[in-house]
């Protein structure tokens, strides 16, 4: 009885209006980051070699005034979004079939981890007042561990699978399960659906590119293999019609950024 009471109290806290409001703010911040990634991708398509991964987008925010303060706001919003997703994983899918519950819980946990990493990156950049990080890359660190190439390849496969699932979510409209469009009207609902389809598909491709590079680095046993989203998009830019493909992908990421704004507005609390 005590544990049930404690659990109910915890559920009420994480679903309280302040936490939900901060979580919606985190979704807006997530959308802003993807709009910046899209803008940097266009720069790569035009020949600029700027970093275009999410940390690069956050670094771009830090370079503007008052960027550091905005990064702390983003950190708080994304942290609340982590709490929100964890709460959904624990309490949000009761009464659904076991298979669907496992899948949706896994999605909640994956999104919580993603938002947590991004929140950590935002906080780290804000704490350093926007100074460029000198930390080694993920692949370099993991290659130094026992079984490093296998772990790097596994991470790459995970990104590719995650990217494929993002594309699947877009194609099948699965993201609509998280939204409450009852009062949005037919036209707005159709707009949210189309933008979400395009955005999720583009996000899946964007995640899949560094996943493929991680797998390539693991197969070659090469810790110096570029593995980030920035390296992936620069590799795409070097291919025939690569700049055109990058511009199309950037438009898709813009759609995902806009979808995040709709997500913040219509996400089920």
TrEMBL record:
<feature type="transmembrane region" description="Helical">
    <location>
        <begin position="150"/>
        <end position="168"/>
    </location>
</feature>
<keyword id="KW-1133">Transmembrane helix</keyword>
<feature type="domain" description="DUF1206">
    <location>
        <begin position="198"/>
        <end position="267"/>
    </location>
</feature>
<feature type="domain" description="DUF1206">
    <location>
        <begin position="26"/>
        <end position="92"/>
    </location>
</feature>
<feature type="transmembrane region" description="Helical">
    <location>
        <begin position="67"/>
        <end position="87"/>
    </location>
</feature>
<dbReference type="Pfam" id="PF06724">
    <property type="entry name" value="DUF1206"/>
</dbReference>
<keyword id="KW-0812">Transmembrane</keyword>
<keyword id="KW-0472">Membrane</keyword>
<protein>
    <submittedName>
        <fullName>DUF1206 domain-containing protein</fullName>
    </submittedName>
</protein>
<dbReference type="InterPro" id="IPR009597">
    <property type="entry name" value="DUF1206"/>
</dbReference>
<feature type="transmembrane region" description="Helical">
    <location>
        <begin position="27"/>
        <end position="46"/>
    </location>
</feature>
<feature type="transmembrane region" description="Helical">
    <location>
        <begin position="198"/>
        <end position="221"/>
    </location>
</feature>
<feature type="transmembrane region" description="Helical">
    <location>
        <begin position="241"/>
        <end position="262"/>
    </location>
</feature>
<feature type="domain" description="DUF1206">
    <location>
        <begin position="109"/>
        <end position="172"/>
    </location>
</feature>
């Amino acid at each position: 009885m005590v544990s049930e009471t404690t659990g109910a109290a915890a559920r009420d806290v994480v679903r309280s209006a302040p936490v939900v409001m901060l979580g919606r703010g985190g979704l807006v911040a997530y959308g802003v980051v993807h709009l910046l990634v899209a803008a940097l991708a266009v720069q790569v398509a035009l020949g600029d070699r700027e970093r275009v991964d999410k940390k690069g987008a956050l670094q771009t925010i830090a370079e503007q005034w008052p960027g550091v303060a905005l990064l702390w706001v983003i950190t708080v919003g994304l942290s609340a979004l982590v709490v929100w997703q964890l709460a959904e994983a624990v309490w949000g899918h009761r009464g659904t079939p076991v298979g669907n519950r496992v899948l949706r819980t896994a999605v909640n946990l994956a999104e919580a981890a993603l938002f947590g990493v991004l929140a950590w990156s935002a906080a780290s950049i804000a704490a350093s007042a926007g100074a460029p990080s000198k930390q080694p890359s993920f692949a370099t660190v993991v290659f130094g561990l026992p079984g490093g190439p296998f772990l790097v390849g596994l991470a790459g496969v995970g990104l590719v699978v995650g990217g494929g699932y993002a594309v699947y979510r877009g194609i099948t409209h699965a993201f609509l399960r998280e939204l409450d469009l009852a009062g949005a009207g037919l036209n707005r609902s159709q707009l949210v659906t189309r933008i979400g389809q395009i955005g999720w598909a583009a996000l899946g491709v964007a995640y899949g590119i560094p996943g493929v590079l991680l797998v390539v680095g693991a197969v070659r046993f090469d810790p110096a293999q570029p593995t980030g989203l920035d390296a992936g998009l620069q590799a795409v830019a070097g291919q025939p019609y690569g700049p055109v493909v990058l511009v199309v992908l950037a438009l898709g990421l813009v759609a995902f950024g806009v979808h995040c704004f709709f997500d913040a507005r219509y996400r089920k609390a």
